[in-house]
Amino acid sequence: MHVQARVVDERGVVLARVDFLFDQGVIGEFDGRVKYSSHLRPGETSADVVFREKLREDALREAGWIVIRWTWAVLAHPDRLIQRIRRALDEAHRQQRPSRLWVPAA
């Protein structure tokens, strides 16, 4: 597992920096409320941030990644998080997608 890895497309363009990256083709993202209020750009609403995050996730999925998310509520029950990660890893194994590109955190 890698933390804060940068996912790139086939041209080397960075699609996103992700919270957790599993070599098997799974990305894990932690969602807290602060994420959607602290990333506001001038004139933006929280809805704009959520929409931008959705587009980012769409790009990751189109690049072949499986994206899973969790919140503090899930972290309160580690067994649920482990189960969610295992399901995603199993799905990635079944799909046997081509190699995905990423760069370790600097």
Automatic annotation (TrEMBL):
Protein's recorded name: DUF559 domain-containing protein
Lineage of source species: Bacteria, Bacillati, Actinomycetota, Actinomycetes, Mycobacteriales
